[in-house]
Amino acid sequence: MQADRFAALRSRDFRLLLASQWTSQLGAQMQRIAIAWHVYVLSHDAVALGLLGLFRVLPVFLFSLLGGVAADAQDRRRILAWTQAGMLLTAVLLAILTLSGIVNIWLIYALVFLRGVASTFEGPSHQSLVPSLVTHQHVANAFSLDAISGEVALILGASAGGVLIGGLGGVGAVYALSAVAALVAMFLVQLIRTTVRERYELSPFSLSAVLDGFRYLRTSPVIMGAMLMDFFATFFGSANVLLPFFASDILHVGAEGYGLLAAAPSVGSILAGVAMSARTQFRRPGALVLWAVLVYGVATTLFGLSTFFLLSLFLFALTGAGDTVSMILRQTIRQLATPDALLDQHDLFLRGTAIRGIGGWNRRQSVGCARGGRHWRAGLYSGSGFSG
Hints:
- With 388 residues, the chain is mainly alpha-helical.
- The protein has 2 domains: 9-201, MFS general substrate transporter like domains (Growth Hormone, Chain: A, Up-down Bundle); 203-388, Growth Hormone, Chain: A.
- It is built from 15 helices and no strands.
- The chain has helices at 12-43, 46-73, 76-99, 105-129, 139-167, 170-190, 207-219, 221-237, 243-250, 254-277, 285-305, 309-337, 340-372, 375-382, 384-387.
């Protein structure tokens, strides 16, 4: 039935959480693209963009496991409220520093790092809270709606951010609006009334439990292979951090075009997700993962070589589609091949692994682009997920 697609929305508390997360992601995406554009305007240096990616990912190295432990042991609503408060603070400081004219790249890096710390606590707590707000049979629907709403927020946030940067207030206005979004998100979380401990109690965190997850990965080539494929594709393969460089110096489309480019992967992701939702079973999912990663790598490589905006837009959307198909299939493989008792430890391990690759890639890719001086060399570096 059509209504079943929105069954989880019958829960008042889930609607509040969904609205809070949507608002938070909308503001975060606007702020994310504004920061990258701001850094490039201040520096005109692709290496500076790579360092921005590094400061975004450092908190994951340092705090990802702690964020997971906190989500298991503390009130998730309170954690979400505090993380939104942290995001509100960084957005307000960015707005004040920018509008007063005293901002510099290193201040931006510091605030990006602080926001990253908040994010490492937000994600695990949000994911852990969802199952406690809906009935057992609606958990999958709740996660689906949560994912779709997040992608819509990314699309709207990127597009709106590009328009605002291009002519309706600049990056300072975007920072101010992202602060408002964080304030609204924090308020909505406070309205959630659920006080019952999560239905799906996790095992108490211990070093032994985490090591069990590592030991199982060593004895499961299927799971290890899927995880390593994700790691290396992500390590070398995304072009997100260099989008200001491509939009400004190669495609010459300005901030508005930059916003559209930033939104493109989410468009591809939604379309791929809708297409995948029509299938309940997949023959040879491992082979399909390889094809999805191949599509992702080829599209990224061609994006790096393209000098035509519409073609670049299509190719970047294709990277989102390939990444989503790969992610869905890898999650399917992981769920089917991992014992239930080890799924939580595996989730905790993966929380930090894939994103660490992004940080390493950011620095490698931007250095190659900056030293090359020509867009074809940028293309080789942005497409190295295919070759690596």
